[in-house]
Amino acid sequence: HAEESHAGRVDRMTMTICQETALTGSEKHVLGVAALLHDIGQFGMPDTIRNKAPWQMGPDDRAIYYRYPIIGAALMSEMQGATKIAQLIEQHAENYDGSGFPWGMGGEIVSLGARIIRIADGADTFMLHASRENVIDQVSNHLRDQRGKAYDPELVPLALDYLADYWRANHEVRTVRMAVDALRSGMQLAENLYDSDGHFLARKGAT
In Å, what is the CA distance from 195 to each residue of 157, 160, 163, 172, 198? Predict the structure, then answer.
């Protein structure tokens, strides 16, 4: 899963979390499309903005960046039958405490689907910009710290469960014992090595 795009990872986390909610099958389908397209409003923005973490932006860049959910919703509204997708995209950057953007909505005024995308998007964005040591701990602490602030407090435990499963699936160490005389030239002995705390032990792709 680590090779997926940001949109793909957000979609995967969104769809996993939503299975634990009361959303209907059709609502989950709409949510999946919105999760994949949540950043569509960023296309056309300068790379100097798109490649920065939101908390690293200056006031001018942030003012431009904060418009992207509206742009994304406007683009989706041009498509017949995409009204609900457009609504989710427009709301997905709102924070639970009302400090988000573009409208400063909060609580359950923001649709459940948008709140799920918010926590999936926030967790993955934080992960992308975290230092490589103890990544899972950093993201988990971020989610706990932002419970009831950026993120719906009811969704944080579901997100923490997802992250724990995601980490195990992607970084589980598998070992096989071999006799020395069974080794042959050219055998691949290990790749993408992490220890149990998530420390990366070799560069990506090294074998």
Answer: 25, 20, 17, 9, 5
Buried b (16+ CB within 10 A) or exposed e, 109-135: ebbbbbbbbbbbbbbbbbbeebeeeeb
pLDDT truncated to tens, each residue of the chain (207 aa)?
445 789 999 999 999 999 999 999 999 999 999 999 999 999 989 888 988 888 889 999 999 999 999 999 999 999 999 999 999 999 999 999 999 999 999 999 999 999 999 999 999 999 988 876 788 899 999 999 999 999 999 999 999 999 988 877 776 555 667 788 888 887 776 655 555 555 555 555 555
Measured between alpha carbons, how far is residue 167 from residues 1, 38, 69, 164 in Å? 10, 24, 29, 5
Q: DSSP characters for the chain?
A: -TTS-HHHHHHHHHHHHHTTS---HHHHHHHHHHHHTTTGGGTTS-HHHHTS-GGG--HHHHHHHTTHHHHHHHHHHTSTT-HHHHHHHHHTT--TTS--SSS---GGGS-HHHHHHHHHHHHHHHHHHS-STTHHHHHHHHHHHTBTTTB-TTTHHHHHHHHHHHHHHHH--------GGG--TT-----S-B-TT--B-S-TT--
